[in-house]
Amino acid sequence: MTRYILLRDRTRNWRRPRVPLGAGIAPEDADAPADPQIEVAELTPDDLRETAGDRDLLTIQPAMPTRLLTPEPMDELRACDMVPGWGLRATGADWTPMSGAGVRVALLDTGIDAGHPCFAGVEVTARDFAGTGIADANGHGTHVAGTVLGRDQGGTRIGVARGITDLLVGKVLADNGRGRSEDFLNALLWTLQEKAQIVGFALAFDTSAQIETLVEEGYPAMLATAAAVHAYRGNLRICEMLLMMIGGGQVPLMLGAVGNDSLRTIAPEFETGPVAPAAAAGVLAVGACGPGEEGFCPAPFTNAGAAVVAPGVGIISAGPGEGLRPLNGTSMALAHAVGIAALWVEKMRAEKERVTAPMLATRLIRSATYEPLCPGASYIDCGRGLIQAPEGSLD
């Protein structure tokens, strides 16, 4: 039997026409709110065909593994070369009057060490979707959260938006960095229901792991590859459908790390595009940059196709116990982007501007600049450029 994800609308307002599953779904009443529901079922081929005949079922897709966007090695950097807070200065977060106060942020990651002193004064609402407890034995989620909003540690500033006091944490990856797509999708639905204004994640639907699993189950390699691609596309579609169903001004700004799969240090052509779910429509994909001799340069590991870039090399943030540690990765860039987005929410509210995901994304993209980037930086690598914190005052 195969594990499937089923998407429904409890209100039954969203229905599908008599066409293939997932095609052309739409609400009968465009103004009525949806109530998405995700189910998981083990189905035989016969079960699948019978279930697919249910008109209340919006789509049914194979579940698949997910993986953490594992931080990149630090071999090329010496500890003495790592400058705390360089990303804050590069984005203007160290001088903006905004702090992110009053903004509700959600992170979908490996959990959090809520007892770390950098989270003092932060109300953390956590939920475990991975089934291993909300504690973060991996450390990735804690590092990301520290960059987003961490309080100063021993005179070292690590947090972009230190005024945030309301943090949602969905643990969607186990301590080994592995998870399941249904856990991510359920966590995403949870953040929508909890009215987060910004949601950040740094994970990928793991096609390679899906292929390996299917081959172990006896699938021919070619069929396993085709089936894994089908599952990848289907999970991406569910993610997009959830955002579409919530719709209007209720959808938070979705920020996803573009991925660390490129190997440009070996050959310039060893690069690839955004991982899913960062590649989903309605998600702003964030790439990583780092210091270079002539400006900030795209990190050699960052995938192409980001909408914007943010600092992601040698980023010092919350580490094990009460300490700090440096990490490389588009996850670190994603954390900067989440914090910068929170600063923009505060700025827009101060200006009496309605805050919606499209309007917030527009502010982030328009803030981006190529001015501090190295001469070889391109749209393929950096999108609209390096994002910037809002200027001005709160008066």
UniProtKB/TrEMBL annotation:
Domain Peptidase S8/S53: 100-369
GO molecular function, one term: serine-type endopeptidase activity
Organism: Mameliella alba
Annotated Pfam families: Peptidase_S8 (PF00082)
Family, per entry: Belongs to the peptidase S8 family.
SUPFAM superfamilies in UniProt: Subtilisin-like (SSF52743)
Name of this protein: Putative protease
GO cellular component terms, A-Z: extracellular space
Keywords: Hydrolase, Protease, Serine protease
Active site: 109, 140, 331
GO biological process, alphabetically ordered: proteolysis
UniProt superkingdom: Bacteria
